[in-house]
Amino acid sequence: MEKENSGQRGKNKLKINKCKECGSYTLKEVCPNCGGEVRGSHPPKFSPEDRYGKYRRRLKKEVMELGE
């Protein structure tokens, strides 16, 4: 027998999010602790053909220099 939801694989996956404000993890779209904005907690997939990698690295370096 087949499962009822076999055609819906991946559609209802829960994705863990991280709050930008307090840093807590949640499965919700808004942080339950502080009400802040959340974003995905996983980094993007690595690709050796990354066209924008040099721009991201330059931005990260600039941000790190400002924080010192």
From TrEMBL:
One of its GO terms (cellular component) is ribonucleoprotein complex. GO terms for biological process: pseudouridine synthesis; rRNA processing. The keyword rRNA processing applies. Keywords: Ribonucleoprotein, Ribosome biogenesis, rRNA processing. InterPro entries: H/ACA_rnp_Nop10, H/ACA_rnp_Nop10_sf, Nop10_arc-typ. Signal peptide: none annotated. Involved in ribosome biogenesis; more specifically in 18S rRNA pseudouridylation and in cleavage of pre-rRNA. HAMAP family: Nop10. Belongs to the NOP10 family. NCBIfam families: PRK13130.1. This is Ribosome biogenesis protein Nop10. It comes from candidate division MSBL1 archaeon SCGC-AAA261G05. The gene is nop10.
